[in-house]
Write a structure and sequence with these properties.
mainly beta
């Protein structure tokens, strides 16, 4: 995919980032905070199953395309309802700051 149409952006996703709040014991608590609500194109790319901790675990990789937004990084994730998409890589399509494509992994099917 090199160019996208606005009509391709038909999935409403929440962009979230990890927040760490220090506690009184010298540690911290982690929670995910919403950064933005975005329209995106979500396309499955591949999938596989494997055994983890003596149980079957499924993984599906996706390409998620959206309008360019500065600051999107692999430390973030997308959420659509109960589905979570961990961002693995962010690509500025054509290096024109118009569209970004995120390579993501959805786990625990």
């Amino acid at each position: 995919m090199s160019e996208f149409l606005p009509s391709d952006l038909r999935h409403r996703l929440m962009l979230e980032e990890l927040s760490r709040i220090s506690d009184e014991g010298g540690g911290f608590t982690e929670s995910w905070e919403e950064v933005a609500e975005l329209w995106a194109d979500v396309r499955p790319a591949s999938g596989f199953e494997r055994i983890e901790a003596d149980r079957l675990s499924g993984t599906v990789s996706h390409e998620i395309a959206l309008r360019y937004r500065a600051g999107v990084s692999p430390a973030m994730r997308f959420r659509k309802g109960t589905r979570l998409f961990q961002i693995l890589a962010v690509i500025d399509v054509g290096e024109r700051k118009r569209w970004i494509k995120c390579l993501c992994e959805e786990r625990e099917l």
